[in-house]
Amino acid sequence: MIDFRSDTVTKPTATMRKAAYEAEVGDDVYKEDPSVNKLEEIAAEMLGKEGALFVTSGTQGNQIAALTHCKPGDEVIMEANAHVYVYEAGAFSALAGVQPRPIPGVRGAMDPFEVASAIRADDIHFPETSLICLENTHNKAGGAVIPIDNMKAIYEIANSNRIPVHLDGARLFNAAVASGKSVKDFASYADTVQFCLSKGLGAPVGSIIAGPSEFIQKARKWRKRLGGGLRQSGMIAAPGLVALQNNVDRLVEDHDNAKILANGLGNINGITIVNEVETNIVIVDVSGTGYNAEQFVEELRKKEILVGGYSSETVRFVTHYDVNVTQVKQAIEKIDNLIN
Ligand code: TLP
Question: Is the CB of 278 inside a 6 Å radius of any atom of ligand 1?
Answer without folding.
Answer: no
